[in-house]
Write a structure and sequence with these properties.
This is Phage protein. By secondary structure, this protein is α+β, with helices and mostly antiparallel strands. It has helices spanning about 1-15, 20-40, 45-65, 65-100, 110-125, 210-220, and strands at about 105-110, 130, 140, 140-150, 160-170, 175-185, 190-195, 225, 230-235. It has two domains: about 1-65, no CATH class; about 105-235, no CATH class. It has a seven-stranded mixed beta sheet. It starts with a helix and ends in an 11-residue tail after the last strand.
């Protein structure tokens, strides 16, 4: 009875094409799986293709003249090593400077201004500066200023805060705003504490300029700033010498 029912179902499925469709689907899957296996990394077809490519490319690559590219690569490697060495040298130099103890107990605002002026003369951007040919040639001077911005403190506050501003009109990269503070009850009325940004990670040392290193050292040593002036102005001639061009 059961066998007859099974025969009837199979017969009907054969007649309506269901069995044929299922067989076709499975055959298609089998073919796809077989092809996938052949084209895998260790498949037979992949190995045949790999052998053919090797037989063509390897002799061509062996005979090719790479001398031109070796020269270019050598130049690139030298530039990379040079730049890396310069960055590391700057980082090591700044690390050494920060580790050296600052023995000055005090520094005058006018002295700090003079040090900064020398920094400006050495590092200021000379782009767009006119050239003076009278004694030179030299670049035209840039105007620099020292000012102190005093905060409006509450009368009951024990501290007075201000910013010592060092400003170069021509090059904003030279500018500094140095936070300073003064304890009102301190008997030495004219002495202020200097605050400076601290190093957050060692890699940042390669990007810190010489003047900021000085400010960090003064801060670490607790060097006091004597406010012998709160306003200065000067014209600084850049150290960089322009190429002379006469018309």
């Amino acid at each position: 009875m059961l066998e007859n029912s099974i025969k009837d179902v199979i017969g009907k499925k054969l007649e309506d094409g269901t069995i044929e469709k299922l067989v076709a689907e499975q055959l298609e899957k089998g073919v796809l799986n077989a092809l996938d296996s052949l084209f895998r990394s260790y498949g037979d077809v992949t190995k045949v293709i790999e052998d053919k490519i090797k037989s063509v490319m390897v002799p061509y690559l062996e005979e090719y003249d790479y001398s031109e590219y070796i020269v270019k690569l050598d130049s690139v490697l030298l530039d990379v090593l040079k730049n890396c060495a310069l960055d590391n040298k700057k980082m090591l130099t700044n690390s050494k400077e920060l580790m050296l103890p600052e023995d000055r107990k005090t520094i005058k605002a006018s002295e700090l201004f003079d040090i900064w002026c020398k920094y400006v003369a050495k590092e200021v951007d000379t782009t767009d500066l006119e050239i003076d040919y009278d004694d030179g040639p030299t670049y035209e001077p840039v105007t620099v200023r020292l000012d102190v911005d005093y905060n409006n403190e509450r009368s009951w506050s024990l501290f007075e805060h201000a910013n010592l501003i060092l400003e170069c009109e021509h090059d904003e990269e030279m500018n500094f705003a140095i936070p300073i503070s003064h304890y009102k009850n301190d008997k030495k009325e004219n002495q202020w504490s200097i605050s400076s940004d601290q190093v957050k990670d060692i890699s940042s040392l390669r990007h810190i300029n010489d003047f900021r290193i000085l400010l960090m050292r003064l801060d670490q040593a607790g060097t006091k700033l004597i406010m012998d002036t709160d306003s200065e102005c000067d014209d600084i001639t850049p150290e960089k010498e322009p190429e002379a061009t006469y018309e």
